[in-house]
Amino acid sequence: MTDPAPHTNVLDYRTSIDHLDSSFLSLLAERVRVIEKIIYIKKRDNIDLDRSEARKEDMRKLIEISSHVQLGVDFLRTLLDLVFRDALQYQPAKTATGLEQVCKTLQLDDLRVTLKNLDWSICLILAERFSTVKRIGQCKRELNIPPLDRQRWRVVLESKMEKAKSLGINVQLVKDIFNTIHQVALMLETNAEQIN
Fold this sequence. Notes:
By secondary structure, this protein is an all-alpha fold. It has one domain: Chorismate Mutase Domain, subunit A, CATH 1.20.59. Helix content is 77%, strand content 0%. It has seven helices and no strands. It has helices at 6-44, 53-66, 73-88, 97-103, 108-143, 150-167, 171-190.
């Protein structure tokens, strides 16, 4: 059996990326919900909103591990900084009774573990996404298609922003994250000839 034509592969890989992006956004939405709880508890208990030493250690480990899944350290730092800056802007609704009820039994350490697990899952999804992007780059190279299609990127970005809105995630945050992801993807597609 012969391999499918490169253009068929590109379409198949794009579908994979759409699924990975959907998973990424769902995990990001869950991460936002966990962060809301952490911030609510910290404000309620007058705890500094800066990252705790334990959280900083979790992030250091995550950044170290990111190189093992071929996820760029600088990229991950940028991503984590974007998400952290967004979290600091969180303002609870005027009536946070529901959150108050939910947070009565929650512990910051438990939420931190959940956050660590979400971050790790996000890293794995992004690593798979970038692996798929490399394959797209190889196919595009075979077809002599340039890595950047500005019109397609606008459509893709708008769809990610719409999905973010439907999930209750800060749309500007998602735009910034996907622009950062896209920069890495373009670099990977451009350098596809160096990939086996």
